[in-house]
Amino acid sequence: MVNSERFAAEAKFVKLPQYDNADIVMCYVSTKEEADTWWLLQKIIQDGKTLAVPRVDGDMMEFYILKDLNQLQSGKFGIFEPSHECELYIPKEGELMAVPGVAFDENCNRKGHGRGYYDKYFGKYSGENFCKIAFALESQVAKRLTNVMPHDVPMDMILTEERIITR
Prior knowledge:
Rossmann fold; single chain; alpha/beta; three-stranded mixed β-sheet
């Protein structure tokens, strides 16, 4: 994967008015299979915004405030998560959230890693309370995903290296 492709979606993200207007940005910590967010995590902090990142406890996920990337530690499934010293973040209405996924479609549906953490989170806090933006490589976007379930929460926007997809 070309390095510029790995960061193209995130570069578009920080130019969005939703990003400019956000005091708090909820963002995942990427794995090798996902669009890379490490640069973005640092930028959010440098821009003086509050950064909240997810941690899985049992079968639920919550977001925690991260003041420094040194507060990340290897967690469940080898994914970096905030340490237990980080403060729990309870979302308010209209929060900006970068959401991971492995496949997407042009209707802004997403498929994650199959454990349903984000869909459960959106169910707990009402998915409509978030501005949900996914990062993807163009190769991860299909015309239409099969097996989209009723509990699968669609994104508001998908950013790729080539385009912005909205619903």
